[in-house]
Structures are given as structure tokens and as C-alpha cells.
Write a structure and sequence with these properties.
about 10% helix; Porin; about 45% strand
Length: about 600
């Protein structure tokens, strides 16, 4: 014991010395507070005060266990200038925001008044902050999809077959600016008030190889250029109350806002006007949303909102539980009710003069839809395994289905599962997706799953050909086998303007992917997917052909992401994909391989 005491004695002495030094530094700091600005340590006046000055004479007290702590005024603390910085060496100053400000408005990497770092006006404790951002999104794309030959005429003399030249060139330029005005210090708590407006200008130029594709009138050529200005966001957010000391809260958001019901956007993910009550409780372990969205039509070619109702209301309630079952794993339950009353309004033609409501397939009679989605989703990790799960069951009624020719009772489901594992700089992914199909289109049961407005980030996302390109069905008018930005073969006009259709073939998808961190700045994403229809009876009825196999084929895709500055301010993406047709797709479109190449440059301020 004596030897241990001898060995530990130097350690104790060092600790005592450190504590004594710290106390002396604190005493010096408190003396400086009491001095005029020119009375620095070592001056004559400072020396006359002596070393036994009362610690409380400066108005600042030492912190003692069990005793109340004297609170400083509501502003920042400036480090004493002549001694080393320490947590105990701060004194109050009047302007905590601009005390050390040296930023420039054009520099987003340092303090910036238009990035919310300094208040623009307001009283202490109720400051208003401004945030501004600007995004340029430029895309060039070349792709091939199956299209019919020009109906009245064609550019390719001697074309007598069903299918024409499906080559397209596409250029898209989007400029998205966003401005927010926020009241409240949001370091530890939500904003008290927020007003945000996000206008978007979109310009598209498309060049097709066949007439009658970009405009219904073949005399108008094969090229179309169109620009549109719209709003992605325009809302007011009001912080109703804090309900705990950890800033659990209740807020209300009114206006055009982006909302996705689940982690991957399987059923509803859109920017629409709405009213949304949201918040959390129990130290953010529980979160919830209660929302109503009266949806607007979208522009046909640029997909931005138009100020025209599509006679559809979506009501959503969901609740999340953090750290469910294991740490780092979230579970969500949701109920979505959709009432689509487009059948009570006049027929709707898109900007290319094509009929989209009701769908130009079957008997083309109008319909109303009332459907309810019951969902259970999960996302996070279990140990080192990353996982995403989704299940939806939809029930309701279609007053009339154009394919079945009668009223339908909706009963359909969707299942999705993704697992991934990280090996240092490699991530191996595997996923499956199953949307039920309708085995009998002649009965009164609609068993094909369809979404409201889906934008799934799943199985390759927008890198895969099946999800990136809209594939025309070529068995009706403006009807697609699968829409742009969707996984579902739902036989509906574009999801931006058409109605859901629950008499469809459904889908089974099996995917393997490998993500490779090539360098800190570049990432390679690869995917192989095998696709098949869940049921093929609907395809055979609508195309009036028999023997359609369920096999769609293999979707191969690869993409490269390059971030030269190790952030998202500059992103360069390039991708390529190909759909190798299986026996079912060959029966519909022939043997041609469908492909897509694109480059995408994103600049963000």
C-alpha cells in the first residue's frame, strides 16, 4: 500500500497544481471584468487591488454544488483577451451574432447573413433570420423506348410495322431558388415562425424520331421546346407549442409543401398545397403527421404544378417510433385516404391535346375512386445490416373501371424489402418488390396495386431503365405500361394527370446492387434487376393477344457520382441503363433492347 501511495503521489500533486492554476486564472478573469478597459494585468492600478479581492465584487459567482447558479444575460460571452480560452473565461457582450462575424454574402462556407447565420431584424430573443439557396439542375439524355409508327404519317418511308423509331433526345434545365424567413434561435429548438417560397423554372427540349409523339398533330414536327414557371414550395409554418423541456413540439404548416408518407416514397411523395399538423413527443422517440392535400394538376411536359385542381383530396395520418426493437431502427404506421372525384368533371386533355382523364383505354368512361391505404414501414439498421421494409394494403371502390367495364371493389397489396451490408468501401445490396396483379379483369374485384403519386428510391432508383423511362403501352391512347419515376405497371396515363388503375398486371422485382466508394470524391452505383408481371391476364385482354408470358426481362444499370469539393454544392452524375427484354416483353414490343444514357450536373449555392 505504501508503495502504491508513493507512486500515485506525483499524480495527486499534478492535479492539485492544475486545479490551483485554474482557480488563479478564474480569479484573474474576474479582476479584469472589474477593471476599466486599459487596466490590464500587471498595471499599477490593477496591482493596488491586491490578490485577496472578493470574488463576488464583480457580480459573478463561483458555481457550487447544491447552490443556484447565477444566470448571465441573454447574449453571447466573449473570451477574455489576455489569457488562454476556457469555458470559465467568458463575459457577456451585447451583440452575440456579429461579435466575430467576418463572412461575405457570396461565401456559403463561412458565416453568411443570407444563410441564416445572423439575424436580419428583430428584438433579442425574437430575431428573424433569412435563408437563400439557388440550384441549377441540368440534364442531357438519350434513350430508346417502344413507340408506334406515326399514325397519319411517318418520317420513315416504307414503315409498315406496328413499331416505329423510338429514339429520343432530351435536354432539361431547371433553376430552383428558395427563400425562407425564420423567427427564433433554432440551435436547440424548432423555429417559432417560418415563411418559405421556392419558385422553379423548368425548360425542356425533346426531339423524337417519329411524328405524332411530341404533339398529336404530325404537321407540328418532331421537336418540342417548352418552359414553365411554378412553385415547389410556398408555405407558412407556425410553432404552436413546446411540450417538454427537450423541445418536443407541435407545429402547423399551411401551403404548398413537399411531403413523402414513407421512407422510400412508395405511395405518396409530392409537392402539393395542404395543411399539415406535425410534431413529436417523449424526447423525439415518437413523431407524427396529420395532413390534408387537395391536389393540383401538373404540367404535361415539365411536371411542375399548375393552378388547376385535379378534383382529388388526400388525407394522411402516420406515426413513427424511433429505436423500435433495436437502437437505430425506426417503425412507421400510416393510414391514407384518397377521394378522387374527377369523374364528376369534364374530360381532361393534356397540353399535347391527348385525353388523360378518363384514360383512353377500354370503354373510356369516367370514374371516381375512393381508396384507403394501410401501411407499415421500417427503416434503419440492425447491427451492421441496413434494412428498409414496406407493406401496404389498399381497399376501396372504383365507380367504373375502363378495362373491366364495371364497378370494382379494390383489394390489393404491395411488399418491399431491402437489405445491405457495408464492407469498408463496398456496400452490397439486395432487394425485392412485389405489387399484386389482377388475375381476372372480367370480375368485380380490382386486385392490382397502384399508388397515388409514387417516387420510389428503390432498386437503383432513377438509374434503372424501368423506373427512369415511361414505356408506352401501345394498346390505347396516352396510356403507359409504366410511368416515369414509378415501379408499377399500372396501365394509366401519366401519374401527373391520370387516375390510378387497380386492374393491372402487378410486378415482381428481384435486385442485386453494389455501391463502390472509388475515392472520397467519386462513387459507383451498379444494379441488376430481374422483372416479371405478377399476372398477365390484363395484358392479354387489353392488347387482344394471347400467350403473353410473365417475364419482363433484366434491367442493368450503372451510375457514377462525382463531388469534386466533397460536398453537394457541385455534383456530376452520369448513368447508363438497358432493359434486356424477356419473353413477355418481346411478345409486346419485339426483340429490341431498350436503353438510356444521361448526364446530370447539379450546382447549388
Amino acid at each position: 500500500m505504501r508503495k502504491r501511495f508513493v507512486l500515485l503521489l506525483p499524480v495527486f500533486l499534478c492535479l492539485i497544481d492544475v486545479g490551483s492554476t485554474h482557480a488563479q486564472r478564474l480569479l484573474r478573469a474576474q479582476r479584469i471584468i472589474q477593471e476599466p478597459i486599459d487596466a490590464v494585468p500587471g498595471s499599477e492600478e490593477n496591482g493596488r487591488r491586491g490578490d485577496n479581492q472578493d470574488l463576488h465584487s464583480s457580480g459573478i459567482t463561483r458555481r457550487r454544488p447544491g447552490q443556484p447558479v447565477t444566470e448571465f444575460p441573454g447574449n453571447i460571452y466573449e473570451s477574455v483577451r489576455d489569457i488562454h480560452s476556457s469555458a470559465s473565461e467568458f463575459v457577456p457582450v451585447q451583440d452575440r451574432w456579429r461579435q466575430f462575424y467576418a463572412g461575405k454574402w457570396y461565401d456559403p462556407y463561412n458565416q453568411n447573413i443570407i444563410k441564416g447565420d445572423l439575424p436580419v431584424f428583430g428584438s433579442p430573443g425574437h430575431e428573424w433570420f433569412a435563408e437563400f439557396s439557388l440550384i441549377s439542375n441540368t440534364t442531357f439524355e438519350r434513350f430508346k423506348i417502344p413507340v408506334p409508327v406515326g399514325v397519319p404519317s411517318t418520317l420513315n418511308a416504307g414503315s409498315l410495322d406496328t413499331f416505329g423509331n423510338g429514339n429520343f433526345s432530351l435536354a432539361v434545365q431547371q433553376v430552383i431558388s428558395s427563400f425562407s424567413l425564420i423567427r427564433g434561435n433554432t440551435v436547440f429548438m424548432p423555429p417559432e415562425l417560418e415563411l418559405r417560397i421556392t419558385p422553379v423554372f423548368s425548360l425542356t427540349d425533346v426531339d423524337a424520331a417519329e411524328t405524332g409523339l411530341v404533339k398529336v398533330d404530325p404537321s407540328r414536327g418532331t421537336e418540342r421546346t417548352q418552359g414553365d414557371l411554378s412553385l415547389l414550395e410556398f408555405f407558412f409554418d407556425y410553432h404552436i407549442a413546446d411540450i417538454s423541456e427537450r423541445y418536443d413540439f407541435i407545429s402547423l404548416r399551411v401551403g404548398i409543401q413537399e411531403f413523402s408518407n414513407d421512407f422510400r416514397g412508395f405511395v405518396y411523395s409530392d409537392q402539393q398545397p395542404g395543411i399539415r399538423l406535425f410534431g413529436n413527443w417523449d424526447n423525439n422517440k415518437w413523431q407524427y403527421n396529420l395532413a390534408w392535400f387537395p391536389r393540383l394538376n401538373k404540367e404535361t411536359n415539365t411536371f411542375v404544378n399548375e393552378l388547376e385542381s385535379r378534383h382529388e383530396d388526400v388525407f394522411i395520418f402516420n406515426v413513427y417510433r424511433q429505436d423500435a426493437f433495436v437502437l437505430g431502427h425506426q417503425v412507421q404506421a400510416s393510414v391514407i385516404y384518397r377521394e378522387d372525384l374527377a369523374g364528376e368533371s369534364k374530360s381532361h386533355f393534356n397540353d399535347n391535346d391527348l385525353l388523360v382523364r378518363p384514360a383512353a383505354i377500354g370503354d373510356e368512361r369516367p370514374k371516381n375512386i375512393r381508396s384507403t391505404y394501410l401501411g407499415l414501414n421500417a427503416d434503419g439498421h440492425i447491427g451492421r445490416i441496413n434494412t428498409t421494409s414496406a407493406f401496404y394494403y389498399v381497399l376501396g371502390t372504383e365507380t367504373h373501371n375502363q378495362i373491366a367495364g364495371r364497378e370494382q371493389d379494390i383489394r390489393a397489396f404491395m411488399i418491399a424489402q431491402e437489405l445491405s451490408y457495408d464492407f469498408d468501401w463496398l456496400r452490397l445490396r439486395g432487394s425485392l418488390f412485389w405489387a399484386s396483379g389482377d388475375a381476372n379483369p372480367f370480375d368485380s374485384k380490382a386486385e392490382g396495386f397502384d399508388a397515388i403519386f409514387d417516387r420510389p428510391n428503390f432498386s437503383g432508383g432513377d438509374l434503372s431503365f424501368w423506373q427512369r423511362q415511361g414505356v408506352p403501352f401501345i394498346g390505347g391512347g396516352e396510356v403507359f405500361l409504366v410511368n416515369v419515376g414509378s415501379l408499377l405497371p399500372n396501365l394509366r396515363p401519366t401519374k401527373e394527370e391520370g387516375q390510378s388503375n387497380y386492374v393491372n398486371p402487378g410486378l415482381r422485382l428481384f435486385n442485386l446492387g453494389l455501391d463502390v466508394e472509388l475515392t472520397q470524391k467519386s462513387k459507383l452505383i451498379t444494379n441488376v434487376s430481374y422483372l416479371m408481371f405478377d399476372e398477365s391476364a390484363v395484358i392479354e385482354r387489353t392488347r387482344q393477344i394471347g400467350g403473353v408470358d410473365r417475364e419482363i426481362g433484366f434491367d442493368l444499370s450503372a451510375g457514377l457520382l462525382y463531388r469534386p469539393f466533397l460536398n453537394n454544392n457541385v455534383q456530376l452524375r452520369a448513368g447508363a441503363s438497358a432493359l434486356l427484354p424477356g419473353s413477355g416483353l418481346r411478345r409486346l414490343y419485339g426483340d429490341s433492347t431498350l436503353y438510356s444514357f444521361f448526364t446530370n450536373l447539379i450546382l447549388e449555392y
